[in-house]
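Sharing in case it's useful to others searching the archive later.

Someone asked me privately for the predicted structure of Amino acid adenylation domain-containing protein, so I'm posting the question and my answer publicly. Question first, with the sequence:
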Amino acid sequence: MSQTSADPGDGGLRALLEDRAAAALRGLAGSTGSSGASGVSDRPGTVPPPQIAWGRGPSLPRDGRRTVPEAVLEQARSRPDAVAVEGPGGRLSFAETVRYARRVAAALTAVGTGPGSVVGVHLPRDEHLPATLLGVWLAEAAYVPLDPESPAERSRWIVEDAGAAAVVCGGDGADVLRGHVTVPLVDLRELFGRTEPPEQREQPDPSRTPLPSPEDLAYVLYTSGSTGRPKGVEVTHANVAALASATALQLGLSADDAVLAAASLTFDMSVPEIWPPLAVGGRCVVVDRACAADGFALADRIDSAGVTTMALTPTSLRMLLAAGWRGSPLMKARAGGEALDPDLARALLPLVAELWNEYGPTEATAYSVAHRVSAADVAAGATGVPIGRATAGEHVYVTGPDGGLVPPGVVGELVIGGAGVARGYRGRPDLTAAVFVNDPFVAGGRCYRTGDLARWTPEGLLEFVGRADDQVKIGGRRVELGEIEAALLAQPSVAHGAVVVRGGEDREQLVGYVVPPAADGADGADGWSEADAAAIEAGLRETLPSYMVPRVWVRLDAMPLMPSGKVDRAALPEPPAPTRADHSPPGTEAELFIAEVWQEVLAIAQVWRDDEFFVLGGDSLAAIRVVGRLTEALEYPFTVRTLFDHPVLADFAEQVERLLASDAGMSPADAPVTEPTR
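And my answer, the predicted C-alpha cells:
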C-alpha cells in the first residue's frame, strides 16, 4: 500500500545502487539455491538469525481464519441496530447492510452468477458501497472494481479480461456501460426501486446464508501493467480475513472505532478501510470522490463523523494540513501509497494519537509492513521514515544476488511471505510463476517478489530504497510507465514516445516525450502543434484513467537511445517553459486576481487567461492552497471541485464571479473581487 524511501545519497551512489539492484534481480531470476523456483536461498550458513527474527510478524489471532462476510453477518445478528456504514446520503445499520446485500446477492443469482463467478462493480462512493460488495460475496462471487472516472473502454476490457459474469452498477453506471459490455447489468436504481420481497425482510441468519470459503476469491484488483495492459491480482477470502485481523491487532480496532473510507475502490487502500472496521463491529465512514479531493470538506467530515482511524496518502495528509485540519487526540493516522517524508511526519505527530507508516503491494493484500512513527524517527537530519517490520501473519526477506538474505545496511530485493500473499495474476500463469514463488523458510509457503529495493537498519527496521524498474507512484496509485507508453505508441501522431515523472514529491507529474511521424520525408518536428498534443491526450483518455495521462508534452526530433537500443531516460530534456506569443493576458478583475494567486501558489512568473491549472504543475494540494486563499480573501466558501471542474483561468474566474454574484444577489459582472490578502 505504501512505499517510503530512505535517501540513497548522491547521484553516484544512486547509480551504484541501481547497478547493484539490476545485478541482484538478474541473479535472483536465475538462482534457485535449494529452494527450487523461489529465488530465495535456504542454504546453510547464509541465513543470519537476526534477519529471520526481524522479518517475522506476530502470530494472527485465533479468529484470523474466519472470513470477513462471516464476521459481518455475525455482527448483524448480535448488534443489528448498530451503525455499520455512514455515507453522504445517511447511515445503514448492520441489519440494513446485510438486508441490502442479500437483495444484491439474489439479483446476481437471478442473472446466473454463483460460486466461482466474478462480478464487476461500477459504483459511486456512498453508504451502499460496502453493502453491495458484501452482496457479491453472499452470491459466492468475487468483485472486480471498475472506476466510474475511467473510460468505458477500459472498463469493458477489464470485464472481458476478468471473465466477469455480470456487472453491478450504481448511479449512472448502467447508462455508461450499456453498449460497451455484453454481460448482464444489475442496475441498483431499478433493483431498489422495486418492493423488497418479504423473505428478505427477515432478520439475517448466518446459518441460512451461503458463505464463501477462505480459499475462494474475494476480489480481483487490476493494477497497471508493464506490458501495456493491466493485470488482475486475485485475492482470496483468507487473504482479506488475515488483513482484517492483522489491522485490528495493530490498531486495537473495536466496535467503538470509526474508520474513514476515502480511497477509490480500484486502489488497494480501500480494502483495509472498509473491511476491518465492519468485521469488529465498528463504523465505516465513506466519503465521496469530491470530498476526498477537497481538504476542507474532508477535514470537516473527519471531525463531524468522529473518525478515529484514517489511512491516507501523504499527498492527502498534506492536503488536510493545508486546509487547516487541527488533528484529534484520538486519531490513529496511517500513511500509505507514497513516501512519507520526515517533515510531514513531524507536522503530523503532535496532531494525532498514533502515526503509522505502512508498506505493501496489491499482491500482498494492501500492506504487509508497518511502523509506528516516533519523534526519534524524524529528528533533525533524518532523510527518510522507516517502514518497519512485518504485520501479523506476514514475514519479509531482503535478498541478495545469490538469493540469500543480506546483512543489515545492504540493499536487496524485498520479498514478502505469509497470509497476505495473493493467489496470483488472473489468466497470467507465466507472470504469476515469475513473481509468486516458494518460501524456503516456511513449509508449503509462498512468497511474492516485489521488485522493490530495501535494506535493514542495524535496529532491525526496514527502509524502502526504490524500484528496480520503471514502476512509479502517482497520487499513491501504482503506474507502469510501459502501459502508458504502449497506449502512446498506438496514437497515429506518434512515431516514438516515452513517459517519465518530473518534479519533486510535492508536485510530481507525468511528462510525455513524442517524436511525430515524418511528414513527406521531412523532419519529424514539422506540423507539431498544441492541437496535436491535445489530440494525443484525447486518444489516451479513451483507454487510460485520467491519472495516467500526461499533461505536459515535449516534442523531439529523435528519441535518445542507449547502446542497447532502449530509451535513455536520463538524457530526456526537462520540459521547456511554454511559449506565450499567441496567448492573452488576464483581462478582468477576477482573472487578474486569480492569476496572482496561481502565480504565488505555483511559484511561477506569469499566468495567461487560457492556462490550465494542472498543466502549469498544479495538483490537489496546490488546489487546496488556491481555494484557501480565495476563501480567505473573498469570504466565500469555495470548493476544490470548482477548480477541478473549471481548470482554465478564464473559466475558473468566470465561475468565481458567478458564485459571488449568486451569493450577493447581483449580476456576475458586478460581483466584487478584491486583491489577495497578504
